[in-house]
Amino acid sequence: MNLKELENKTILLFGKSRAFSSEEFESQMRHHKITVLKEYSDEVVLSIDGRMMTPYEQNASDDLYENKNIKSISIDELERALAKEIDADVLLMSLKLSHDKERLKAFIKNTMISDELFFRLLKMYAWDGEDFFENDDNRDVTAALIGRFYENIERNHNVQYATLGLMHLVAQCKNEKLIETIALLEPLQKSLNAKKNSANFAIVTAIAKHPKTPKSVLKTFVKKANTYVQTLIALRENCDAMMQEQLFIESDENVLEALSRNANLDKAIVKQLLSKERFAKNIGQFIRLDEELFELLFEKYALVLAANESLTLEMQERLYQTQSEEVKAILGANSLLQREIIEKLSQEESQIISSALYANAQTPHKILQEAYANAANHTALAKNSNTPEEILLLLGQSEETQILAALAKNESTPVEVLYQLQLDSRFERLVKENAAFGKHIQTQNIGWMV
Predict the structure, then answer these.
(1) What is the CATH number of the domain that holds 69?
(2) Burial readout 122-131 (b: 16 or more C-beta within 10 A, e: otherwise)
(3) What is the rounded distance in angstroms from the CA atom of residue 310 to the CA atom of residue 285?
(4) Cα radius of gyration (the chain)
(5) What does the pLDDT look like over 360-411, one tens digit per residue?
(6) 2: which DSSP letter?
(7) Which residue of 32, 57, 98, 376 could cross-link 14, Cys pair, CB 3.0 to 4.6 Å?
(8) Farthest-apart Cα atoms in the chain, separation
């Protein structure tokens, strides 16, 4: 609706305002030069159905519409229009000068204002050194924050009044601005070095791990948070060179351990961490390789390099040519193993290599089918999610515990085999923990308890 059309005109309000407090609603009406009456007069051009209408007011509203031909709208429509017309800069300046905490809180609780304005208002709110639910005002503001953004809040109203609700909000959030706003709230900033079992620290760690957390927040955490949070950030692929340098300077062993597992570790830090063997092994396994890094690590750490998922075909070939059975076995288990190397490894006469290769989902059906002829390969085939269904059905007839346990865990195992396995107490728990089986049960909706 267009508020300009109501300027210098009279409206009739039945009931009360909803999103705006009574005082704020009246103030907004005066600002827009709209007269508000509680009883009908000939000047009324529009009637508003507000909240908490009495039966008398409901009848009066219906009568106006039927007999006076006066248009009626809901209070939500009017308040939504009022919220759109708020001058954010003027409002924030007014709140800043007046120090009116009640008015600020009322606007924060107003569901009609934009998210952008909400974030700016929330930054102004003073928590007075207390926690999210430590006093009534803080509780109301926190509940407004959770209630505004929590998905399907109508199904779980109580989540608004628990610190755990904030953690769940962060977990489901896809809005970078919201994560940034929550991260900078005073109660969380005070909790960056809290005990690991505290509710606020759980929110901090959820933010540190969230893929949408802005780098500005991560950099703040790197400087202010304890080593556990720093470890979480050190593991992130978007932990840039500047953050890595800051974390490296801290020299905490756990943080350095995490850095050594970062796929995008800066080369300058790589060269400094190679002096310690355990860090070097992590780097060899997890770093995103290029030719320089591969050559730097190849001679001494071929064994761990074989597990690295960023190996090119040429790098895999170099590792295959080492003629080390152990290197080839680890290479055979690499989830991004190239077809050419798979073919070569399948010709090796080593059960260690074969067991790794035939459990690898990258191995083609033809090779797996040929491998079934040798009973020594059956456990590996039972583990492989790429093993053809007909072979998994045959393996389901086995009496060997290792094979059956592997089938119980394998998400590709045919459902009829899993049904049989769950009747055996040895494998019942494994079947229930099998995600594919759980999904099947939920889809079929046959009352199975998982």
Answers:
(1) 3.40.50.10190
(2) beebebeeeb
(3) 9
(4) 32
(5) 999 999 999 999 999 999 999 999 999 999 999 999 999 999 999 999 999 9
(6) -
(7) 57
(8) 100
Measured CA distances, 241 to 37, 238, 268, 280, 405 (Å): 64, 9, 9, 18, 44
Q: Are 134 and 161 in contact (CB under 8 A)?
A: no
Handedness of CA 118, 124, 125, 129 (dihedral sign): positive
The amino acid that residue 173 corresponds to is C
Q: Is residue 165 domain-resident?
A: no
Task: With respect to residue 233, please indicate whether it lies within any of the assigned structural domains.
Answer: yes
Query: Is 71 within 8 Å of 46 (Cβ atoms)?
Result: yes
pLDDT, tens only, 404-445: 999 999 999 999 999 999 999 999 999 999 999 988 887 775
Spatial separation of the C-alpha atoms in residues 43 and 217, rounded to whole Å:
55
Q: Tokens standing for 302?
A: 């071929």
Question: How many domains would you assign to the chain?
Answer: 2
Rounded Cα gap, residues 187 and 203, in angstroms: 11
Which candidate, 189, 187, 169, places its Cα nearest to that of 179?
169
Look-up: residue for tokens 């045919």?
A: 414
Parallel, antiparallel, or unpaired: how do β-strands 72-74 and 44-49 relate? parallel
Sheet containing 9-14: order of strands: 34-37, 9-14, 44-49, 72-74
The residue range of the domain holding 259 is: 226-288
- Gap between the Cα atoms of 294 and 311, Å rounded: 9
- DSSP string covering 290-345: -HHHHHHHHHHHHHHHTT-TT--HHHHHHHHTT--HHHHHHHHT-TT--HHHHHHH
User: Residue written as tokens 């389901």?
Assistant: 396
Please give the Cα distance from 164 to 178 (Å, whole number): 16
- Whether 10 contacts 44, CB under 8 Å: yes
Q: Which of 273, 288, 303 is the last residue of a domain?
A: 288
Tell me if 64 sits within 8 A of 73, measured CB to CB. no
Q: What is the pTM of this model?
A: 0.80
- Gap between the Cα atoms of 351 and 349, Å rounded: 7
Q: Give the H or E element holding residue 230.
A: helix 227-234
For residue 13, the SS3 value is: strand
C-alpha–C-alpha distance, residues 4 and 82, integer Å:
11
Domain final residue pick, 250, 272, 288:
288
Classify residue 443: in a domain, yes or no. no
Q: Say if CB 339 and CB 349 are below 8 A apart.
A: no
Tokens of 178: 């919201």
How many CA atoms lie less than 13 Å away from 398 in the CB half-sphere? 23
Distant-in-sequence contacts of 403-411, Cβ < 8 A, 24+ apart:
403/378, 403/379, 405/430, 406/379, 406/382, 407/382, 408/434, 409/383, 409/433, 409/434, 410/382, 410/383, 410/384, 410/385, 410/434, 411/385, 411/435, 411/436, 411/437
Supply the DSSP symbol for 66: I
The first and second tokens of residue 239, run together, are: 């932990």
